[in-house]
Description:
Blueprint: E1 5-7, H1 10-17, E2 26-32, E3 42-49, E4 52-56, H2 65-72, E5 76-78, H3 81-89, E6 99-101, H4 102-108, H5 116-124, H6 144-155, H7 157-171, H8 174-188, H9 213-230, H10 240-252, H11 270-285, H12 302-322, H13 326-329, H14 332-341, H15 343-351, H16 357-368
Parallel strand pairs: 1-4, 2-5, 5-6
Antiparallel strand pairs: 2-3, 3-4
Amino acid sequence: MSAAAWIDSPAALEKQVSTLKKGLWLAIDTEADSLHHYKESVCLVSVRQGEETFLIDPFALSDLGPFWEIAAASPWILHGADFDLRLMRRIGAPEPAEVFDTMLGAQLCGLKAIGYAGLVEHFFGVKLSKASQKEDWSARPLTPTMLDYAAQDVTYLDGIRERLSARLAELGRTEWHRESSARVVRTSKVLKEIDPDEIWRINGSNKLDYSALPILRELWHWRDREAKERDVPTFKILSNDRLLEISQWVDSNRNDEHVPNYMIPSNCRGARMLRLQDALNRGRIEQPTPLPPPGPRPRRDSSVDRRVEQIKKSRDGLAAQLDLDPSLIASKAVLYALAQDGTAALTRLVTENRWCGWQAELLRTAVEG
């Protein structure tokens, strides 16, 4: 593989872009630094068209306009498109004319290994190294190993697209893939709203005693402030499991001000320890937010449960015939919507971008029956 060009100046970007052709597939991948910094940044954009590979440094280039102009008029090949699309929008990416999501293609072909490295090995017999996967991509200069890793991430994308396209055509699923990829693009445009009053309710918090929730809330905000100040991911301050463990312990031992040492990170000393103790003390004295009075418990509709099982049985039978993962045809949430609303849900779910038309058609008979 020829060395990838490193693009870190407007002149270099203009020169590289001049070699690209509008309308031809662009293989694109991004690298971010979520494992090393508090706020995730786009650290690198890898691009390949034909035999040319280049790596764009967004830290050195505040304006990627010349590249985005070509990209807007070309179809993109992405693996797991939602993640890369969300990242690239932060640095000015336009709406792609078309996206071929290789991960979705692999799923629709019934392949078991759907990761990029797995597909490269499956189609090309090449085993890619994952050594640079967890490196700090915000560091400069990047090592030769990291540069090679970034280039490899787009080297095989077009070849994978060609092979998956041929297989999808054989299976009669080309339109399924096109529709599914378009849905991913639409989904990636939806901003995930976070309620600041609920953000601290991490997975597992519903299992805590009600009286422990104020402690968890204060502990979560302490961790977030510490991570922001040190510019590290929150998990490097304290894991979610440890947040829950400390919250439960403090709630159960309210008269003991000293949390067991094994629960506290070894580097939590001095001022940081004092801030932690202040947070825990606030949590001890705060009262839990009053719960709204319980309303009448909704009666479980046994007829809906029966319909869910009937539609699920049909879905699972179709999945076995098509050699697909059943959840690719309909998720649990979709099954319940179909069971509750019947044929009306077939159109509504597609309109709401929660489902694709091909999935609705597969299950239409089961829903109408």
